Amino acid sequence: MTGTVTVVTGSPYVPYMLGNNRVKMKYLWVLFLLLQGGIPLFAQHIEDKNCVYTVLSDSTVVLTTYQYNGNIDWKNDCLSIDSMVVHEGKRYRVVAIGEKAFQSDNHLLQAYLNNVKQVFLPETVKEICSDAFYNRFNSLQRISFPGSLEVIGNNSFASLPSLSEISIKSVNGTGDWAFSINPSLARVYMDSCVVSIGKSSFFKCTRLNNVNLEHVFHIDEHAFESTSLENLLIPKCKIIGDFAFADCRRIDRIIFSDELQQISDYAFLNNTALKGLDVHSGWIGEGAFMGCTSLQSVFLSDSVASIGQAAFGGCSSLVEVELPSNLQRIEALTFMDCKSLKSIVIPESVAFIGEAAFFGAGIAEITIPASVLKIERDAFQNCKNLKKVILYCSDKIRYEDIFPKHVEIVKKRM
Question: Quick one: which of 196, 221, 318, 341 could link to 173 by a disulfide (CB 3.0–4.6 Å)?
């Protein structure tokens, strides 16, 4: 339903009729593209009350425009969309709310829509298209989604400052930016059928503190960034997108899936209430937990394939870290400014330690295993508590750019 193009009778073909060959070719090409795409050239429109509908088939219509026709009940703060429209003796089911359906520039209609507190959608509606309700209902508090609903389009309910509660019953996922920037949205109820959360779906819903994500498999980038979520249970989620939970400063506990594949870049950036972390699989992206200043312990199982740059940078309370025993690389800035980290065991599988990997960490003593072939500059610089380094690795490593000058270097051979 989303993106259906209709061409109504009239002006597009006037240039062709006037005989301008260049313009004629242009419109013939447009006509060819339309026919190739199976797009209807002439659409029938039905007006009923304040609604304009476009006929989709012999029995279905989409509400394409909600308009002002001088007949509005200003005392009624509930908006109900009819399930059926009768035109010339034929009955049509309303199966969709069209793109930008409520985006009228009429100031009287805008005033009315801004007074609406509740919207009721009929059980016939299967799709809500992009931008349908976007930024037009300043007083809207609740929406009743029908069980028939299959698609919630991009940006469809974004920027509704009074929306406080929604219940999603039947869709498989939410569109990009679907409920974003709704500062009053505190409660979201999702049935088990919801398995995917679109990009920025709940971005900056700053009061949102609880949502059931136990059945979700995929959470896209920025999906819950800058919300007030607390306990995070995502036991089936395999993909967590970039910045998905960034700046969620109340999350204090996370339960991940044992089949987790990916924690993307900056996914949990600045989760300042998070205290402990257990990750049992997948890979961890760049800056994934950077700035988690209350994080004290990290356990990464052997099934964690890799850890990105700055993954735990700035985790100033981090005391205990268990790395995968088969880890091959500790990337640049991974534990930068982890000032409470007094010790860490580098697995004997590690071959590379990146630039400033432990810069400013609180480490007092560390052992570099023989597997390490390269340590980049500043890897342990500004580690003010570092007193002793035990080296089992290559003689080719230059110490002056890696360790502070005051550190005792003890070389050992296997």
Answer: 196
Nearest 10 degrees: Cα torsion 165, 184, 73, 132: -80
**Contact predicate 80/50, CB 8 Å:** no
Instruction: Residue 128: name the closest of 160, 104, 100 by CA.
Output: 100
Six-digit token string for 414: 């296997």
Alpha-helical regions (H) of 8-130: 14-18, 21-36, 107-113
**d(Cα 412, Cα 393) in Å, to the nearest integer?**
8
Q: Dump pLDDT digits (tens) for 271-285.
A: 999 999 999 999 999
DSSP 75-86: T--EEE--SEEE
Question: 96, 8, 12, 9: which is closest to 56 by C-alpha?
Answer: 96
What CA–CA distance (Å, rounded) separates 189 from 192? 10
How distant is the alpha carbon of residue 7 from its chain centre?
A: 35
Q: CA 409 to CA 66: how far, in whole Å?
A: 76
Determine how β-strand 90-97 pairs with β-strand 84-87.
antiparallel
Strand partners, 167: 189
Q: Which strands sit side by side in the sheet containing 276-279, from one edge to the other? A: 276-279, 297-300, 320-322
Entry field: residues in the chain:
414
Dihedral through CA 315, CA 316, CA 320, CA 322, nearest 10? Answer: 30
Q: How far apart are CA 356 and CA 337, in angstroms?
A: 10
CB atoms within 10 A of CB 213: 20
Average pLDDT over residues 49-64: 93
Q: What is the pTM of this model?
A: 0.87
